[in-house]
Amino acid sequence: MTLHPPVYVDGKTGRSLILVGEPLANLRRHTAGRRTIVVTDQNVKRHWKHLLDGLDTIVIGCGEKYKNLVTVEFIYDQLINRQVDRSALLVGVGGGIVCDITGFAASTYMRGISFGLVPTSLLAQVDASVGGKTGVNHRGFKNMIGVFSQPEFVICDLELLSTLPAEEITCGLAEIVKHATVCDQKLFAFMEENMDAVIGRDPEVLARLVHRSVTIKAGIVNRDEKESGLRRLLNFGHTFGHALEKTTGISHGRAVSIGMVLAARLSQELSGLPAEATARLENLLHGLGLSTRLPVPGSKIAQAMVLDKKRKQNAIFFVLLRAIGQGYIHQIGLKSLQQWLAR
Ligand code: GLY
Q1: pLDDT in tens, 298-318
Q2: Quick check: pTM over 0.90?
Q3: Which part of the chain is CATH 3.40.50.1970?
Q4: 43 belongs to the catalytic site
Q5: DSSP states of 234-298
Q6: Taking phi first (over 0 means left), then psi (-120 to 50 degrees means alpha), and beta for anything else, what does residue 54 get?
Q7: Active site annotation includes 26
Q8: C-alpha of residue 145 to centroid of ligand 1, in Å
Q9: Interatomic CA distance for residues 136 and 145, integer angstroms
Q10: Which of 226, 210, 67 shows the shortest CA–CA distance to 133?
């Protein structure tokens, strides 16, 4: 596997080095002799046992229901029992949930120790592991408790994707389409032209998509780490997507996919996006095996948009499109959005 040029995020809490194509087996090169504790989950531990053998490991439960403060306390307890001090390094090896929890536990244990991430899902490689958002859910609200804190390094080993169910790859592709749709029409066209290779998981094509996605995201985070402006672009499809996920329980990738199509339709009305652009987006998502149609009436998901971190009083920073590759942020009243959805 080709090692792509390194990508850097320069955040307030430090510089993050992102390596696409670097094998997990090279982890020790990045831990620089420090005491290292790996946080992983039961699934990842089972699949990649041979790569984790010999490493001091904390194993947490699998799935969203473990993404909470109870699991964070469990990690703190394990670190205290092992007398881990501030010079140690925590490394999260797993999907988005493991990455978000590890980052949060590391950033708060003893007021913050260093951490690195080895994302094992496509979604985590192109989104969760990059940009320093860490945290957990709280009382049913997604990512309600957390901090911005940059990992020291992110290792995107494409080999780790080989054990993923097809559905997980499909869902990760939604976030790559998101990056392309808001910022990079060339990447969008590349995905359209290489649809078969993408679906067939051609390793070189997937690595290129991951590297381009990570580069786009790092470029945005470098200009707006704490999401006070430009970074909101990365929420394209997520206002409707999160509400849909919450209401119906469908996966994040599928919900965001439908959310992006809805946002494109709204863009047709509010910013004159040509219908042809929405059709291209729908075709690409559909071709990749993603969902594009609401499975429930819009009125059902309108209610779930009430508590959204993208909200400022009664307005939401909503991401619209002028064209493929040209997203922009527009404040829309919560009520207007709910009415548009419900009509
Ligand atoms: N997932 C969007 C962001 O990291 O800003």
Answers
A1: 988 888 886 555 566 688 999
A2: yes
A3: 7-163
A4: no
A5: GGTTHHHHHHHHHHH---HHHHHHHHHHHHHHHHHHHH---HHHHHHHHHHHHHTT---S-SS-H
A6: left
A7: no
A8: 15
A9: 6
A10: 226
In ligand 1, the atom with minimum distance to the C-alpha of 235 is 2
- Provide Rg for the chain, Cα atoms: 19
Token output for 262: 């809805």
Q: Alpha-carbon distance 23 to 2, whole Å?
A: 10
The alpha carbon of 9 and the centre of ligand 1 are apart by a number of angstroms equal to 13
* Among 211, 217, 280, 310, the one annotated catalytic: 217
DSSP helix/strand/coil, 7: strand
pLDDT of residue 178: 98
Task: Match domain 7-163 to its CATH number in 3.10.105.10, 1.10.530.10, 3.40.190.10, 3.40.50.1970.
Answer: 3.40.50.1970
- Which of the residues in the chain have pLDDT under 70? 1, 306-313
Question: Could you give the residue range(s) of every CATH 1.20.1090.10 domain in the chain?
Answer: 166-342
Q: Which of 238, 254, 280, 310 is labelled catalytic?
A: 238
Are the C-beta atoms of 290 and 250 separated by less than 8 Å? no
213: how many CB neighbours lie within 10 A of its CB? 29
- In contact, 268 and 320? CB cutoff 8 Å: no
Distance CA 149, CA 14 (A): 8
| CATH class of the structural domain 166-342 | mainly alpha
